[in-house]
Amino acid sequence: MWDFMKTLRIGIASYEKMKERTMAIARGELKPGNDEPKLWFTSIESLARVLSDKNRILLNLIIEQQPKSIAELETLSGRAKSNLSRTLKSMERFGLVELLKGEGSAVCPRVPYEEIQLDLQFAHHQQDHFAALR
User: Fold this and answer.
1) What predicted TM-score, i.e. pTM, was given to this entire model?
2) Residue 128 clears pLDDT 70, i.e. is over it
3) Domain 6-133 indexed as CATH 1.20.970.10
4) Which one, 65, 83, 84, 94, has the greatest CB density within 10 A?
């Protein structure tokens, strides 16, 4: 097992809220706390696409088996190389997987988290969300 595993906090917020928060951070008006989400999605649906059952199984396989290369992970997972590479690249963009240089030309997949926590707040302004339901 890798020596340092941690928890990834994920938040769900509208694009507008995420932009507003990012701008406040950039202006120095907001300093994110250590207990705040580091990764944000605009919807549960977009989060579910990235963390599907199949992809969570893949993350667990990487943590448990610690493959030394994508080729080894391909054998362990039974997933086709093109599909596996595409999935890993997508997960890498979100910071869910790291693709590190291994031995020779091998790329070693690593999961830097052992746990994911979802922060989901209900709207303070319900009218905005009721309009979205129509």
Assistant:
1) 0.76
2) no
3) no
4) 84
